[in-house]
Specification:
This protein is an all-alpha fold. 73% of the residues lie in helices and 0% in strands. It is elongated and about 50 Å long. 2% of the residues are buried.
Length: 82
């Protein structure tokens, strides 16, 4: 295993744990998943979210983007090293 594969795997592991923790910390307003699927009035309304909830949502979004970028880079490097 190359060092870059180990570093990429560790970054993926850390970011996935961060996404998991951030998702659990978010406060739910409304009916949860059923409300989101059915188009509840509270589904995507950020006006009702507190600043802390908005910040958690942004950080979770950024962590998701980092996760997918690192996952794609890991696939590219793994295919080149093979």
């Amino acid at each position: 295993m190359a060092v870059i594969e180990i570093v990429g795997g560790v970054i993926l592991l850390v970011v996935s744990v961060v996404i998991f923790a951030l998702t659990l910390m978010q406060h739910t307003h409304g009916q949860g998943l059923a409300g989101a699927i059915n188009g509840s009035a509270y589904g995507a309304n950020n006006a009702r979210l507190t600043p802390a909830d908005q910040m958690l949502a942004k950080v979770t979004r950024v962590a998701g983007i980092i996760f997918f970028v690192v996952a794609i880079l890991a696939c590219v490097f793994a295919s080149r090293l093979a």
